[in-house]
Amino acid sequence: MSEPLHFVVKTRLVEVIERLGEGGALPPERVLAKDFGVSRWTMRQAIRELIADGRLRARQGQGTFVATPKLVQPLALVSYTEALRAQGHTPAREVVKFEEIAADDVLAEQLAIASGDRVYELERVLFADGQPIGLETTYMSVQRFPTLREVLDPTGSLYRCLTGQLGVRFGEGEELVETVIATPREAELLKATQSLPMLLLHRNTRDADGHPIEVVRSLYRGDRVGFRATLRP
């Protein structure tokens, strides 16, 4: 079975990308279409897929450029801050909301509290080197962590605060990863289009005694972030 034409074009474009190198400007779509002997629609489709793959980045009014390599995050109970710094990047967070809400039945079961109990909802945009890469929402029991608002700098590391100031010992966590399309609000916060594939992570974390610590929903730009897990038999 022959490969779709846009896939063949995409493969050839990867060679162009490798020659240009990081930050290099891709020739205009019409020029590439003419050089490759294909329609502009076919070229546009190939370029869109490479943008979704994180190989290219479009800048409105400027053109399309070779993207920086994706950030690779470990699927592990580690601080986002420390994981990025270990890769030579500068992490930052912007607080969208930090408030108390009433737990619904699902959240109450996950945090082992009663439905209607107060829960912190901490939503933050995650940045790497000044660029938004993720949107993280964390839920924690107010009853278990009554002083969290007093001791946590919400623009800093939550894990460092929990272990250093609140004496929490992390035990284990469960994480589910799936692909989704962002809502208009999420796309706006991440400075992305709704057509851009997103990676959604759901994580439940427990302490060393098996008690729930947090429930986390993390949405990452698929063009900027990948994940790595260490597998052992």
Strand order of the largest sheet: 4-5-6-9-8-7
CATH superfamily of the largest domain: Chorismate lyase-like
Mean pLDDT: 88
Distance between the termini: 37 Å
Task: Write the CATH architecture name of the largest domain.
Answer: 3-Layer(aba) Sandwich
Helices, by number, come to 8
Strand % is 35-45%
The number of E-state strands comes to 10
* Morphology: elongated
Radius of gyration: 21 Å
Q: Biggest β-sheet: count, sense, barrel?
A: 6 strands, antiparallel
Q: How many distinct folded domains?
A: 2
The SSE string, one letter per element, is HHHEEEHEHEEHHEHEEE
Write up this protein.
- The chain is of the alpha+beta class.
- The protein has two domains: 5-66, Winged helix-like DNA-binding domain superfamily/Winged helix DNA-binding domain (Arc Repressor Mutant, subunit A); 71-228, Chorismate lyase, CATH 3.40.1410.
- It has helices spanning 5-20, 29-36, 40-52, 80-86, 105-111, 148-151, 158-164, 184-189, and strands at residues 56-59, 63-66, 71-74, 91-102, 118-128, 131-141, 170-181, 197-207, 212-221, 225-228.
- The strands form three sheets. The chain has a six-stranded antiparallel β-sheet. The chain has a two-stranded antiparallel ribbon with strand order 1-2. It has a two-stranded parallel sheet with strand order 3-10.
- A hairpin with a 3-residue loop joins β1 (56-59) and β2.
- α1 crosses α3 (40-52).
- The protein is elongated, with a radius of gyration of 21 Å.
- The mean pLDDT is 88.
